[in-house]
Write a structure and sequence with these properties.
With 162 residues, this protein is α/β, with parallel strands linked by helices. The chain has helices at 21-26, 41-50, 63-72, 91-102, 117-129, and strands at residues 5-11, 31-38, 58-60, 79-82, 108-114, 133-140, 150-157.
């Protein structure tokens, strides 16, 4: 992609452990504006302490409402990081977001983390149906002596040719 200014969303950002990932991945020659969104004020406070440079676009609010507002304004990310709670983002949000991203002219990279395989499958199906392609998947046993694991998936969509 020849764009030099990218937008990223870090949905359910928590304390910001992954919020600087888009800028690191973009490398030199690219400017990335990352919107870090979480429903917990304490998470955003921690992000602001951990990554002061990202605090200008840190939002305390409902992630699903953020998604819908941005789709309505046609302000979509080039890079999306999503680490939702166990119940995921939900099928309505996944459907509307996947359609909006697939209809863009620009490519989109999607990094999705999940600790519940059922909500992961439900939430990612609309993205796959919309033309996103699986690039890689990894399973991490982060919760020793439990049946829980964290799954990290990288998807990409080349965008439309409209």
């Amino acid at each position: 992609d020849h764009k030099t200014e990218w937008t990223a969303w870090d949905l359910y950002c928590g304390a910001g452990a992954l919020s600087d990932l888009p800028e690191l991945a973009a490398g030199s020659g690219h400017q990335v504006t990352t919107w870090s969104v979480d429903g917990e004020a304490s998470a955003i406070t921690a992000l602001q302490l951990n990554y002061p440079a990202l605090s200008a676009h840190a939002v305390v609010g409902d992630v699903r409402e953020f998604i819908q507002a941005r789709i309505g304004d046609r302000e979509l990310p080039d890079i999306l990081i999503c680490d939702p709670p166990r119940d995921g983002i939900g099928l309505p949000a996944a459907r509307s977001l996947s359609r909006a991203l697939a209809d863009r002219r620009a490519p989109t990279a999607l990094i999705w983390m999940a600790c519940d395989h059922a909500s992961l499958a439900r939430d990612l199906k609309p993205f796959l149906d919309a033309g996103f392609r699986l690039h890689s998947m990894a399973l991490f046993d982060c919760f020793t002596y439990t049946t829980h694991a964290e799954t990290v998936i990288l998807l990409g969509c080349s965008g439309t040719t409209k």
